[in-house]
Amino acid sequence: MLARHRSGPYGTAIPSRLRALRGTTSIQSLTAAFVAAVVGILLAASTARAGDAESAKEWPRRTGIVVLQFDDGTAGHFTHAFPILEKYGLKGSFGVVTGNLGKSGSLAPDQVVKMHRAGHEIHDHTLAHNAAMWGDPGRKAEWAEHTEKSLKILRDLGITTRGWNHPGGKGSQWTSELHEFLLPSYDYVAGRVNLEPEERYNIHWNLRDHPFSLGYGGLGSIPRRDSIDASRDDIAGVKKRIADGIQQGLVVISLWHTVKDEDGTAWGVEEVCKFVRQHNLPTMRMADAVRAIQHPREYFDEQVEQIANPGFLCDYDENGRPDGYEGCRYASEEIRDTADGRVAEFASDGATWIYGPEPGATRFSLRARSAEGTPCRLVVTMTSTEIDKDDHYRFGEPQQILAADLGATWSEHETEVTVGPEVDRIRITLEISPPGKVQVSRLSWRTGG
Q: What kind of architecture, by CATH, is found in domain 325-447?
């Protein structure tokens, strides 16, 4: 059994915006400096959702979080990724192999300091990236030695971190011994290896799994290609997974290792940053995202809408399908309903996920009609996945929660369901008989009955 550990990661340092006031020698210059400082504060507040998102309860529903992660501390993280992130006003999380600092092809110590001072997260990617050593519980003395040296290197640079980045490679494995060893020094592990399929989507609101089991949020590492052209389909897929995951409430982690011009990775970083900024998607450093999902009440009330893209308004990846759903597409533009939002057209097996649902009485409702205008029956099923106190997952059977007879006119249907305290995620599926399509103008999932 792995012990559960719930302390939050280190807080975010907020640099002073009033340094411009120092050294002013006249009323005019003091006033100008004060105005500039206030403007800076207002600009920072206006981008809080896409940056640190520190303002409490600003989110009207449970949109997920994007994390921009960079592993191994390669030189391109400073020469390419860092200026791109700064250009778009975004902050990344950098896993640094501390023993490689200053070596050819790796970050220099002063570069790490500069990124840290600019507000980017630096976490410990170990002293030597020795995957086999960390996978062997018989080498605990080396674990202690490497950890002490690695954290000292960071402290000497003025950096305190509570994040550990698991080195992958031959011999790498996750063990209870490693877990217990890391607990005193770190609050979370990024890039944990040997994840089971269900664990890869465990980083979401109301985190019930152990934060040392952080998954990939439906994304993972960006493939390495040999040109921009070869990377285009990959980046299109990244945008799709960000769009879907952000609607379902996942923390979507996009991960790069090398970042350079010649293989298209620098282009890919900019494309993803541009996409995130264009749609003002909530973006945080890893440590801040972990803290947020452990303390969701600081970001939204429990009564907010939980279901993905409830009005079907978001199609960030522009694929003609509401983000967060499968087995559906948008109905033609001329099809409208009196309710706000757009109309989606579902076939049987159309579905979405609700990750980290709020426990208790919940009201599920929808507005729908037959797409062909002929009578049909719509059945909505709910499949729950639970996680117990030992971090073991249990997969349930589909349960019918709503059945409705639909015709040519819009009708509204609702039901109450109860979400158990151990439910980690829910899959909502629509089934239609006889086989056909239904049009839906709104889905809703709110606590309170």
A: Sandwich (2.60)
Every domain of the chain and the residues it spans: 49-298, 325-447
Name the average pLDDT for the chain: 86
- 325-447 and 49-298 share a CATH fold: no
User: From CA 205, how far away is CA 293, in angstroms rounded?
Assistant: 4
CB 364 within 8 A of CB 419: no
Please tell me the pTM assigned to this model: 0.86
User: Which residue has 């980045």 as its token pair?
Assistant: 165
Could you report the per-residue pLDDT of 62-80, keeping only the tens digit for each?
Answer: 899 999 999 999 999 999 9
Confidence of residue 449 (pLDDT cuts 50, 70, 90): low
Question: In whole angstroms, what is the distance from residue 421 CA to residue 64 CA?
Answer: 21
CATH architecture of 49-298: Alpha-Beta Barrel (3.20)
Pairing of strands 163-165, 325-330: unpaired
3-state secondary structure 349-377: EEEEEEECCCCEEEEEEEEEEECCCCCEE
